[in-house]
Design brief:
mainly beta
């Protein structure tokens, strides 16, 4: 959970205006999220990650929101280095929550 939230203003993204918020976590990590100015759904997140020993800024784009038990969930997530057009796309065909599962699925392998 974030320790501090700072409003950075409004920015224009590809899909339209978005509110930018800087999140500072208890461990010192910082990320910036962008909320669609109309729906307040998260459309972009910028985070810093270590890759091969170097700090790299990554962009995460979320879209295709659909309601799942009263909560709006993204069905498409695009992830890649900041400023790059090369991204990995994750597309969910189905999102379910609180589905009963057998505890054996989480047992240590033998």
């Amino acid at each position: 959970l974030s320790q501090k939230v700072e409003y950075l203003g409004q920015e224009r993204l590809e899909g339209g205006p978005a509110y930018a918020l800087k999140l500072t976590y208890a461990n010192g990590r910082v990320s910036t999220i962008y909320l669609d100015a109309t729906t307040c759904q998260e459309v972009k997140r910028v985070v810093t990650r270590k890759q091969m020993g170097q700090e790299v800024e990554m962009e995460v784009f979320t879209s295709g929101y659909h309601p799942v038990q009263g909560v709006s969930e993204p069905t498409t997530i695009d992830i890649g280095p900041k400023g790059s057009t090369q991204r990995m796309r994750l597309t969910m065909e189905k999102v379910e929550v609180n589905v009963p599962m057998d505890d054996a699925r989480f047992a240590q392998p033998k």
